[in-house]
Amino acid sequence: MRVELIIWGCAALGLVAAEVLAPGVFMLWLGFAAAGVFLLLLVFPQLSMLWQAIAFVALGIALIPAYRHFLGSNDHVTDQPLLNKKGAQLVGTRVPLESAIVAGRGRVKIGDAFWQVRGPDLAAGTWVIVTAVDSMVLVVERDAD
Question: d(Cα 138, Cα 134) in Å, to the nearest integer?
């Protein structure tokens, strides 16, 4: 058995094992590229080391679209699109001001957390409605009720 076959076989197994130990999906596809060169060497045993390296790079680059097609899409439809967006979940919430809004800044308490708010100057205790979120600041308006 040629040394190159052993090298590419070990590289393929090592890269796949690295993916198992530290998942991130990147090493898996390089492992597939190394396995492809291994198979290429079985078909063309006279292939020089330079062409083996070129084949590995080409396969690694060619497998990037495969990665994006099968595992890279983050466009998953979910029944809870605001699950990890606490601020966005609060839009429409009606709460009293914990501290007055002065110069456009104030504070509310929602649950057990205090939130910075931005809106028109209002006295503490005034009921407001959260209308939007700007980073970690809630945008509020005076409640009409």
Answer: 6
